[in-house]
Amino acid sequence: MVFLLQLQQIFLSPNQLIPQPKPIINPLISLNLTTKPKINPLAIAQNAAIRNIDSDVVAAAKSAANASDEEVLLPPELRRELMPNHVAVIMDGNRRWAKMRGLPVALGYEAGIRAVRKLVELCCNWGISVLTVFAFSSENWSRPKVEVDLLMGLFERWLKNELEDFAKAGIRMSIIGDSRKLPKSLQDLIDKAAKITKENSRLHFVVAVNYSGQHDVVQACQSIAQKVKDGIIEPKDINNFLVEQELQTNCIDFPCPDLLIRTSGELRLSNFLLWQLAYAELFFSHSHWPDFGEPEFLEALCSFQQRQRRYGSS
Prior knowledge:
Number of strands: 6
Strand order of the largest sheet: 3-4-2-1-5-6
């Protein structure tokens, strides 16, 4: 009986048990990323032809290449020299977004996928090097099993649909967290995504799944302790750099985020990148994650660019 009630909470709206709402249009469509302008217009045209990019996009790219040396066009409110290298996001509010609209919680997560896709597109087009999103924490296993199974299924379906587009768009993908507890099919897909995209450099898209910031620090300490025990290093050799090399973010060129964004009005870190966020600028948005789009991201970046980062100095 408890399982049936949980199933109703996830897949049925609070005001209507039957029939279920008609599904929304599947949001898992291919990315529409603006092509990076190149110095040589001919090279742009050749690359565009290979990737089947529309001719009008090619023409725009050629024009941009001739008119400016900048790699991407930014909104006028932003300054290129002040752009963050690494943006991290705690995507909060999918369930609340659905419940406020009388929709099944499952549709809130589907809508959240659209917001992820849009943010990846913006980061690519605005020249951000690393985007890390908190998709599933180690504490989320305490949620009802039917909801956890839903999330795992959505993640796997999303990754299958997006992987080819990520590869074509020059996006590198990495997963951080303990993947051993994930379904075997999802583990295999994660490994495949990392291998296929490992040489890409336009954007490093990092997804934290079954991740805990505290456990990340603990496992780094355990690894360092073992190296001391084995005589590989001396205790006096332990420093910040050595710890960072043992954290799960050691696969990232810029492991420490410059800007952390959390949606849905919550004002906490929730065990996310605790070491890495030591000097990050924090931005808290009242928008629920499915509503977080270009205007909200632009607001966060403008706020970031107005701050003075002193790193402890006066």
